[in-house]
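Entry 14. Ran structure prediction on the chain below.
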Amino acid sequence: MEESSRMAEVLEPVEQLALVVHTSPVLEMGDEQFFKFCQINRDLRIERTAEGDLIIMPPAGGSSSLGNAQLTYLFSEWARRDGTGQIFDSSAGFKLPNGATRSPDVSWVLNSRLERLTDEEFEKFPPLCPDFVLELRSPGDPLRVVKGKMEEYIGNGARLGWLPDPVHKQVHIYRPGQPPETLDHPPQISGEPVLRGLVLDVPQIWAAMERKAGERSKS
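Output, structure tokens:
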């Protein structure tokens, strides 16, 4: 037990805070202006809070990028088989009901909700909160900040949220009307009843992030 605690302390990353740019009341950007601002700054990962502050996030490191790619692939394969909704990757922005614009690492939206959007709404930042959201904690992400985003998603209508934390090998699960559930070293997690038939092999994600995917596939 003491050995595990010492390892956790060694692996605990230095926090890398995103850059917060306050614009109000000097500059008030409407939805159209904000969308154009993001388009002319495509090299930046930009979110916007409900208060209008711009959040400029650092690029993902190699480990997190591998994890995100693996998750997007697995969820896309499941969504193709399920057929009731669409998977979006981390480049998609969604305007939440509280006015914030967020970009989950992985999100899923029912087809029936997407069909109600106009072409213009779909081509820009869809004005809705996804049914499912996943935020993969990067090694430098402050956990309190990512947890705050998950609470925001649930408060704006998400029916299920997952927060995998590779630092502590935990998965935090968020559901409306319930306190968050934390699973330590889970071998699998089920998306039921929101994501019907989806079971995620969690160690597969950790292995991808640690460059051990090839070793795992041979075992």
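The longest strand covers residues 160-165. Will compare against last week's run tomorrow.
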